[in-house]
Predict the 3D structure of the following.
Amino acid sequence: MSTGCSVARTSDPTGSGHFVKMVHNGIEYSDMQLIGEAYQLLRDGLGYSAPQIADVFAEWNHGDLDSYLIEITAEVLRQIDPKTGKPLVDVIRDEAEQKGTGRWTVKSALDLGVPITGIAEAVFARALSGSVDQRAATTGLASGELGEKPSDADKFLEDVRQALYASKIVAYAQGFNHIQAGSVEYGWNLTPGDLATIWRGGCIIRAKFLNRIKQAFDDDPTLATLIAAPYFRTAVEAGIDSWRRVVKTATQLGIPIPGFSSALSYFDGLRTERLPAALTQGQRDFFGAHTYERIDDERGKKFHTLWSGDRSEVHT
């Protein structure tokens, strides 16, 4: 079974092939983290066993979530350990390793100023899982008053499915924004829709909805974010209430979901008309004279308030 991606084997002296493969792997980190969080929500939120959760993922693989990773998740959850007779996933140590491509993706995004929060949270989640001493030192700390587990299992299952799909859309949107930024920065002239076509083949993140991504960029080559494309906007907006319920329920139950919650915060950040960055910029101007722009003046025009003087405003 192929676990690679054809773009990784592309002969490319400029480095674009390696860059695209790196971001592919970053999206893979995020995708796997989100699936893991869905698994834990069903395990700890509903008390489902591994075989029960396997059946859920197998069913989800026939719908919008149809993908290689969802498919193999069901297979892993069904595997029985011959030594103990327990589900294999229940005897595997919960410490996820990494080879570095996720970290490289995050470092690159930081250099390019692209917010790939989902991929970053997935990388940090693996790092947290491997923080053995810290986890051992804090085991048993108070959780505070926890809420009740979901009483309607079917409704919660559907909520988790919707939240997983919406979060997955955010992960891919961030990854493609990263690729677009890299293409501009390094003059690669990459075509996002073509990458989606390549990834439908032998890649680990191959998924049914890559066809939707290809179509979105074909329809609008200058698409600012996948989330704004009609299909993806409709999908996210249809799942937003479920998404919020899942994040709320997980918080009330003390179940860590950095992927789901960061994806939701990213979405809320995009759709919010006015962010607190105005205050941040005011603070920067106060302590470092870093200037700011005004909403009632032209873009690019900088101003500074004389904080230590009469607090009048000057154009810089």
About this structure: The first helix runs from residue 16 to 46. The CA atoms of residues 124 and 227 lie 24 Å apart. Residues 6-11 have pLDDT under 50 and may be disordered.
